[in-house]
Model the fold of this input.
Amino acid sequence: MPCRKKTILTFLAVAAGGVLAFSQAVHANGATVATVRFSGDRFEPAKLTVPANQPFTLEVTNADKKAIEFESFDLHRERVVRPGQTITVYMAPAAPGHYTFCDDFDHSVAEGAIEAR
Amino acid sequence: MSGRTRGWLFGLAAILAIQVLRMPVRNGSAQGGFEAPPDVRSAVLTACFQCHSERARWPWYTQIAPVSWFVHAQVEEARKRLNFSSWKDYLYDPGTAAQKFGAINQMVRSDAMPPWYFRALCARGRLTAAQRAAIETWAIEGRARALKAEPN
Done:
């Protein structure tokens, strides 16, 4: 096999592997995985975008020193997250729209938002 | 006109005036999906659904300010915290379901729910000891099932 052809095939194989690895990171069991981290009294990112009308999971990491209660009244979710803990929140398909979430233990913390498009 | 009469007239006028600030009576869409053993379901339907569901009844006195303001605020807050019309949605996430079951057990066990003013106004709000025990057992078992399904 000519050297150039071999290089191209290797490149394609690596690229395909990369695409596959990326899609598995984004989609687990067919559902989109979004992540949010709580630290320094705020959610990061403060706004998430997820596909509408599809189930998705939200991984919430509490990197702060105090427990939080991840709460979305709009999406009917309520979970206590201990310091250093990461939880997985399973979300049902959401209609296109804007949904908020907050730390229900501390209402001075700025709300976050999930945009379903 | 005596001062006392004037006071009553002023009070009456004030009550009539605040009727302008009406609260919208509304029940949202009821998705349903609340399932429980018959004894638990019956107790929850009668004692909890008035505030914690989209199937609230709105008697005449809930249309008169300032009672209407209080009742509407209570129902809004109750629905935010626990809405049996969204029960199926809670179960979709085992972690949320575990917390809801835990809160129900805690509230009923501590006698915090139904609230005293609802029990005072409405006979339906008074749970018997057997009904309380049934709800507590159901909530404990439900929480255990949810925790088993939720690895974190």
Notes: The mean pLDDT of chain B is 87. The longest helix of chain B spans residues 129-149.
